[in-house]
Amino acid sequence: MSVTKIAEPYAEALLELSDSSKKLTTDMNVVSQFLATSSDLKNFLGNPLITRVAKKKVIKDVLGEQISSQTLTFLMLLVDRNRISILDVIAKRFLELSYKKDAIEIAKVTSSVPLSDEQQKKSCREVKIDNRCQPNQACIKNRPITNRRIYS
Which pLDDT value is given to residue 105? Predict the structure, then answer.
């Protein structure tokens, strides 16, 4: 069974809970960003040799102050059901479902330099920007240059 199929019911259940609280979307953004920037935490949570008690303690210590008790309870449930290793997939799917429900589209921006906060704020409020920086790729008129040729 694929990881996304396993993650889907958890993301949907969390989405149902989020109807009563918009805080869950903010919390899952925090969790998603934290996992994206901390490979150590991701590896720790995915390690089957580490006990559930140790994983719960680390989650409480690292994320406990930044997320609501409802989200923390959800994360503890994932630890109990041995699904914490796919937390990044669950969080990503939850955010996709949440944005879709709120009619928010994700714009993926690839640039040679990161967009500044000011540039991101100038974008439409209904668009969530997934800003990716690829400093080794030059572009002319938004077309990548490869082997001195411009491809559309």
Answer: 67
- Calpha distance 96→92 (Å, rounded): 6
CATH topology of domain 1-103: Peroxidase; domain 1 (1.10.520)
Neighbouring CB atoms inside 10 A of 10's CB total: 21
> Hey, where are the domains in the chain?
1-103, 104-152
pLDDT band at 81 (very low <50, low <70, confident <90, very high): very high
